[in-house]
Write a structure and sequence with these properties.
- The chain is built from 1 helix and 2 strands, in the order ββα.
- The protein has one helix at about 50-65, and strands at about 5-10, 20-25.
- It has about 80 residues and is α+β, with helices and mostly antiparallel strands.
- A two-stranded antiparallel sheet has the order 1-2.
C-alpha cells in the first residue's frame, strides 16, 4: 500500500443491519526487472580545474554579500 486509505460511504445500502463503506487506497505497481547481466553501465567522470573553482567562489562571494547600515558618510 502506498498511502493511507480513504473511506467513503456507499450510497446503495440494501441491508439495514449493516453499513457499507468503500476503502480507496493506492498501491505500488508490480515491477518486473529482467536479466541485467548483459547490460553495460557507463561511468561518467568530471574534472574540475582552477578556473571552475574560481568561478564558483566568485559566484558565492556575490551571493553572500552583506550590506550594513552605518551612521556616517561613505568611504572607500
Amino acid at each position: 500500500m502506498a498511502g493511507y486509505p480513504r473511506f467513503e460511504g456507499v450510497e446503495e445500502q440494501d441491508d439495514k443491519e449493516s453499513f457499507k463503506v468503500a476503502a480507496i487506497f493506492e498501491v505500488f505497481p508490480e515491477v518486473v526487472i529482467g536479466d541485467l547481466s548483459a547490460q553495460e553501465v557507463e561511468k561518467v567522470t568530471a574534472s574540475v580545474g582552477d578556473a571552475e573553482v574560481d568561478q564558483t567562489v566568485e559566484i558565492l562571494r556575490k551571493q553572500r554579500t552583506r550590506f550594513n547600515h552605518v551612521d556616517r558618510e561613505a568611504r572607500n
